[in-house]
Amino acid sequence: MTRTVYYTATTLDGFLADPDDSLAWLMRQDLDEEGPQNYGAFIAGIGALVMGSTTYEWVLDHLGATGEAWSYAQPTWVMTTRELAVPEGADVRFARGDVRDLQAELAAAAGDLDVWVVGGGDLAGQYADAGLLDEVIVSIAPVVLGAGRPLLPRRLDLRLEETSRNGAFVTARYSIDGVLLEDRT
Ligand SMILES: NC(=O)c1ccc[n+]([C@@H]2O[C@H](COP(=O)([O-])OP(=O)(O)OC[C@H]3O[C@@H](n4cnc5c(N)ncnc54)[C@H](OP(=O)(O)O)[C@@H]3O)[C@@H](O)[C@H]2O)c1
């Protein structure tokens, strides 16, 4: 069955990017590309992606720097209220509003594989709010930034399923309890 998985790198203090959307703190870390929780093994199990527009624009800017056309073979949905460009040959689709309205389409596109919520944190939170988020998989870099784009700005209970080390990162996989903390207090 298709799972919806938030897979990302984060700082130790829970930021996806610095306040200027820079990932320089991430790019300089030691990483074993064949090691635990590696991207290659993860993306092989993904049938569809969904991301927020800031993340999409970061990917587009980054592609410009590396000369790549587009990073993903899978259909990718970008949540936005704006009209944004699509790189040549990329299967990028746009959606807005309640993430529940998109879920049947995403799951159909994913087939037997999983859906990757790429980020940002609030979008992952929208999936959690809707009860649609199954797993959070994080690679925690040995960096604190003090401020930036939050990992998952919600109050949630998670269940730790697995931990490992990859290079400089602590990696952890959590399942979602499915109950907002507010519901319990
Ligand atoms: N560390 C990592 O591995 C990692 C992973 C992912 C992202 N990142 C970085 O983290 C930062 C994330 O930024 P972020 O948290 O600000 O945002 P984001 O989720 O990438 O983008 C937020 C924007 O997406 C649009 N959006 C989100 N939900 C929507 C909805 N339901 N309907 C319509 N539009 C919606 C809105 O913009 P508009 O409507 O104005 O378009 C919103 O301002 C970026 O710098 C990204 O590059 C890092």
Please provide a written account of the structure.
The protein is an alpha/beta fold and 185 residues long. It has one domain: Dihydrofolate Reductase, subunit A (3-Layer(aba) Sandwich). It is built from five helices and ten strands, in the order ββααβαββαβαββββ. The strands form two sheets. It has an eight-stranded mixed beta sheet. It has a two-stranded antiparallel ribbon with strand order 2-8. Strand 3, helix 3 and strand 4 form a beta-alpha-beta unit. The radius of gyration is 16 Å and the shape is globular. The mean pLDDT is 94. Bound molecules: NADP nicotinamide-adenine-dinucleotide phosphate. NADP nicotinamide-adenine-dinucleotide phosphate binds next to strand 1, strand 2, strand 3, helix 3 and strand 6.
